[in-house]
Amino acid sequence: MNEIKGIGVSEGIGFGKSLIYVKEEIILEKGKSKDQILQLNKYNEALKTTEKELKHLISHTNETMSQDESAIFQAHLMILDDPEIKENIEKEIANNEYALNAIHKIYSSYIDMFSQMDNDYMNERALDLKDIMTKLIYAVNGKKTIDLSKICKDTIIISEDLLPSEIAKLNKKYIKGIVTEKGGKTSHTAIMARTLEIPALVINNISKLVKDNTDLIIDGNKGVLISNPSNKQVLYYKNTKTKELEFKTKILTLKNERSKTKDNKYIHIASNIGTEKDLKHALEVGAEGIGLFRTEFLFMDRKKAPSEEEQFEVYKKILSSFPNHKVVIRTLDIGGDKKIPYMDFPNELNPFLGFRAIRYCLENDDVLRTQLRALIRASYFGNLSIMFPMISMIEEIRKVKEIYNEEKEKLQKKSEKISNKIEIGMMIEVPSAAIMANDFAKEVDFFSIGTNDLTQYVTASDRMNPKLINIYTPLQPAVINLIANVIKAGKNNDIWVGMCGEAGANSLLLPLWISMGIDELSMSSSSILKARFTMKQIDSSKLKKWKEKVLLSKTLDQVKDSLKVHSYEN
Ligand code: PEP
Ligand code: MG
């Protein structure tokens, strides 16, 4: 059988050739070399291979991308040929260093020097040097690096794992699917794949099951990967894809409508975004504002944190794009599966239970203060709601509000133009905050329920572990009951309650959130029109008894059965 079963983490169907993407760690040689000539030859061969690889990239990018792209590789060629660098490496080899160690030592010294300079241009050059060093070291080891951003034929990437920063580089036009061994529906890699509308699966041991350059079909809906498909399978999937596209075209007509139920109850459907680039898609589908801007992506894939000015420009652009809707911007939520190399993170046994998000920001309050200043200044250009992640104690929310007020006062003294209606809210994603929601509600203007983390903490199941998908689900009775109480606490204290975790986009759960009185759902732009379509079929006035029955469920199966009664799957 050519069907490999996995977990679908991003919907859709894609056709392409497999590309096995292996990330090699650089492991240095131990001790000293005994053969200088051999090492020098290895270095010279690596130089030739890398030169060839770069020349290929130059002609390729000239054809498929812009002159700017190929200029980057021209510059890399010049660095590769730099006499000073070459001479230093040769000296190391003459001192009995292995070629690999010599390349690593000399390049690292330049990388360190450039990245420590207080100059963005030089910091960028450090990244270039790192790129060339990796290519050279791979060449010494007889391997080739793969630049994911340069893929330009229909490809399905197979990898143990892909970092959010790697996904951000992908060209959606050619990447037809992603299959990883690690991760789950709410890992950030999966969330980003959904944003880009790239089908994605998680399959155990997949790199061993599929060979490079094999014809594949990926089915993110059913969670299946098909290798060397038969004509019958190709036909079946082509038809299914056509039907999917027809449905997409049909719901596109809803893009200018407001999101409301059959009985005319309005519930905002906003967009979750990670970068400024995601704005376009949010506007195209008629998102009713931004319910979550994950600002940590602004901090990734670079050498140092973005300045206040840089952040201000991004926030201003997003706020001015939605003059009639709220824009919820979350302060830096770093840690867990989102790491930033230039920020000093301890190695932790349980990063999701560790020094994350607000915990990091309260200890490094200069980072938080810079971000808050940029946000407060940008508030003038729209309807800003600032949201704090991972709040687990009342002390934390009080402390961040104190810092916020201090920064705001300083800016007011400088006569900076500031909106007078900035909202302050928090994520409800930690059980302690959910249990004490009634008390937290008195501290903030809104809640946004983060079901991705809340589910993992309530059920003690890692959101990244594919083995736990039957436990890690927001359908668990404990999770839905806790969410019902959070929404009730919000209502009792007259604050609005949104949901920005992935469960907000789950069509099976949509009627339940509506019956509980949720005010806003925020999701990937790719899910908005479908949710709006589903919402139109729901009569919220008829859900009360049903909701009570669902909440009385004791088992996961009971929840699933009860939800089927109000299922609006197309
Ligand atoms: C969540 O935890 O539900 C959430 C929206 O935040 P993130 O996925 O970024 O952790
Ligand atoms: Mg979270």
Tell me about this structure.
This protein is an alpha/beta fold and 570 residues long. Among the domains are: 3-19 and 147-232, Phosphohistidine domain (Glucose Oxidase, domain 1); 36-140, PtsI, HPr-binding domain (Enzyme I, Chain A, domain 2); 295-425, Phosphoenolpyruvate-binding domains (TIM Barrel, Alpha-Beta Barrel). It has 22 helices and 16 strands. The protein has helices spanning 36-64, 67-80, 83-94, 99-116, 120-140, 164-168, 188-196, 206-209, 231-251, 279-284, 308-321, 357-363, 365-378, 394-413, 431-435, 437-440, 451-458, 477-492, 510-516, 525-535, 544-551, 556-564, and strands spanning 3-5, 7-10, 13-21, 155-159, 175-180, 200-202, 215-219, 224-227, 268-273, 290-294, 326-330, 383-388, 423-428, 446-449, 496-499, 520-524. Strands 1-8-7-3-4-5-6-2 form an eight-stranded mixed sheet. The protein has an eight-stranded parallel beta barrel with strand order 9-10-11-12-13-14-15-16, surrounded by six helices. The chain is globular, with a radius of gyration of 26 Å. Bound molecules: phosphoenolpyruvate and magnesium ion. Residues 186, 292, 294, 333, 429, 450-453, 500-501 line the site of phosphoenolpyruvate (PEP).
